[in-house]
Design goal:
single chain; alpha/beta; 3 domains
């Protein structure tokens, strides 16, 4: 197959991954590849260009295929922008039912004590850090906030929203050198569940394009129950890490990708084992595909680390390596 640029989209339940070339596709861990993408391209070639086509015509054939894929890609981008305009609307009319508040993170100046107070109240992970690590955590939260835009679907925003959602991103990436998730410029916050289209469904969180979207009600409820194995904030940040490190940072040295590939070699086996257990740690959604299994494994890693290690020690250790932290030995 040719290796030139062919943009295409891989979509899962609450995440969408955009690949810009076959090179990026080939670099993905096996569990994230979708053979049907290649089948579609091969089918298109075989239907439109018979096998007897001379080899010298291959570049022309590929140019036509690339042009077709590019047109489809641009239609997809236009559609995505249309949907984004529905989600992030103009806040010039605060009385509009569809209005949202937009805050540029660079203009939000939360002090050290302010962030510390909020995190101590709501984030048990932060409470268990040493004073030195708490200081580093707060610095990272401040940096993360400065690099994001926050869109709040409500008539009123609260400082806890940008602080705690940023803290969730820092929590999951605290052992990594790179933690800003630069691919994601927008954090979208809905007061409760919200509708998503294509297909039409109700969500409490999702990662798509350059946005991370969350239901504030579910986010806050989950942080108030830090040991039940459910945390939509950590779940969506786990998806965001996948996009950032596996899709948007594919060239050059990438320790996350290397460690993730080790995790990727064992996750299918464990997922198969969990499907036949009656007392599975993982819910039906987690067992539906590899990406949901990864995000749920991260939730369990932070909220039920002892249970996860007891049931699946190899899985636990692999996540320790990917995130460069150990919840049982902090």
């Amino acid at each position: 197959m040719p290796q030139d640029t062919i943009p295409f989209l891989i979509t899962y339940d609450d995440t969408s991954f955009l690949l810009s070339s076959m090179e990026e596709y080939n670099q993905l861990p096996d569990s994230l590849k979708q053979p049907e993408v290649l089948q579609q391209i091969q089918s298109y070639l075989s239907e439109n260009y018979p096998a007897e086509t001379d080899t010298k015509d291959t570049p022309v054939v590929f140019m036509l295929v690339s042009a077709f894929m590019f047109i489809m890609f641009m239609k997809m981008i236009w559609s995505a922008k249309k949907e984004l305009r529905k989600t992030i609307v103009d806040n010039s009319d605060p009385n509009s039912a569809d209005s949202c508040l937009t805050y540029k993170g660079a203009e939000l100046h939360f002090g050290t004590e302010e962030i510390k107070s909020v995190c101590l109240k709501y984030n048990s992970y932060f409470r268990n850090l040493s004073p030195e690590k708490q200081s580093r955590f707060i610095e990272r939260v401040q940096q993360f906030i400065r690099h994001k835009n926050f869109h709040i679907y409500s008539s009123k925003g609260y400082k806890e929203m940008p602080i705690l959602i940023s803290a969730a991103a820092i929590q999951i990436s605290f052992g990594l050198n790179h933690f800003l998730l630069p691919h994601f410029s927008d954090i979208i916050i809905h007061p409760e569940e919200y509708f998503a289209t294509d297909p039409l469904r109700i969500l409490v969180g999702n990662v798509q394009g350059q946005s991370i979207t969350l239901s504030w009600k579910h986010f806050l409820d989950d942080y108030q129950k830090p040991a039940d194995g459910k945390n939509v904030g950590l779940h969506e940040m786990a998806h965001a890490l996948q996009v950032q490190y596996l899709f948007r940072k594919s060239r050059g040295e990438n320790e996350f990708k290397h460690d993730f590939e080790h995790y990727d070699r064992i996750d299918d086996k464990i997922r198969s084992e969990e499907k036949i257990k009656t007392n599975s740690l993982f819910d039906k959604n987690a067992l539906s595909n590899q990406n949901e299994f990864w995000a749920t494994s991260v939730e369990l890693f932070f909220e039920k680390p002892a249970d996860l290690k007891q049931d699946h020690p190899a899985l636990y250790e692999s996540i320790c390596n990917v995130l460069n932290q150990d919840m049982l030995h902090r």
